[in-house]
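$ run holo --ligand "zinc ion" --emit tokens
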Amino acid sequence: MTSAADAGCPLCQSAAEPRYRIEIPEIGERQVAACRACGFWFVTPRPSAAELERFYSREYFDSEPGGRGFTDYLPKSHARVGEGWLAGRRLRREKERGRVLDVGCGAGDFLAGVRETSGWEAFGTDVSPAAIELARREPGLTLFHGELAAAAFPTDYFDAIFLRNVLEHVSDPAGLMREVWRVLRAPSLRSGQAGGRVWLLIPNGHTELAPFAAAHRRGQAAENVQAHLNFFTPVCFRDWLARLGFRVENIYMLGVKRGLFELGCLPASWRTSRRTRSASEAKPPREAAAWKHTLAYAYLRRALKASFKLPLWLPVGQELHAVARRPAG
Ligand SMILES: [Zn+2]
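-- output --
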């Protein structure tokens, strides 16, 4: 086993320096190390496959109030379906027929939305058996339980691939992106068809590392309740995608309010988060109103959320979005 002191960077293999102590539920104490060469931050040593499987049990997706998992993942699914509808319409405008893959599809609601409005063939993979069991309730999806590489999709197979909140969870992000590259459609010079596109959504590393740094200053180990293993700062993420060979078409941050909470610029008492609520003050999850299950609401939500697209030099947003294409060559 690699010791924390000589941890090599999982992205560029350069030497990395342990910086913060963290505690992950079900897994135990680890360190967060920083790569001096590429600016990547990561948990070391990496948790084993068995430890990760224990962490992503059913409780992760459907927790009791006060538990360690999501209390609102299932009732909030209308929001993810709506995101899927919008993404599906974008795909449809570009191409009548195609294949779309959602890596880490969770309960499959985003993918179901994409399938509905695009009419494309929809595939999903997830390492959590509980998530795949939930996703099977959605009609028309081709689902695979396990790592993307284990699904053994043909080369050049997908026109669009989504990785929404996946890269921060995986032990080998570089290996996963190489597999994404392989199954993504290569551009065809003969037919003039462009290469496939990948849509990436991850938390902004700056806002995720801020609470770890604060705990470190108090001489404590920070709680890493979501078991994130990888922390990409915006510039590190952009440069890494380029090094992998992708052409980054668009990259920006959203979620300025949540980002400011994470950075400690807004008082924590203003916040009502599933993560900070104690069992006694937690409210039972509510079923969303019927009007929230409409395309019009999905557009409104997107418009409000996307109204402040933050550039990379102002890294205070909570979500980092990137769209990248597989170029020729
Ligand atoms: Zn590195």
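-- notes --
The two ends are 38 Å apart (CA to CA).
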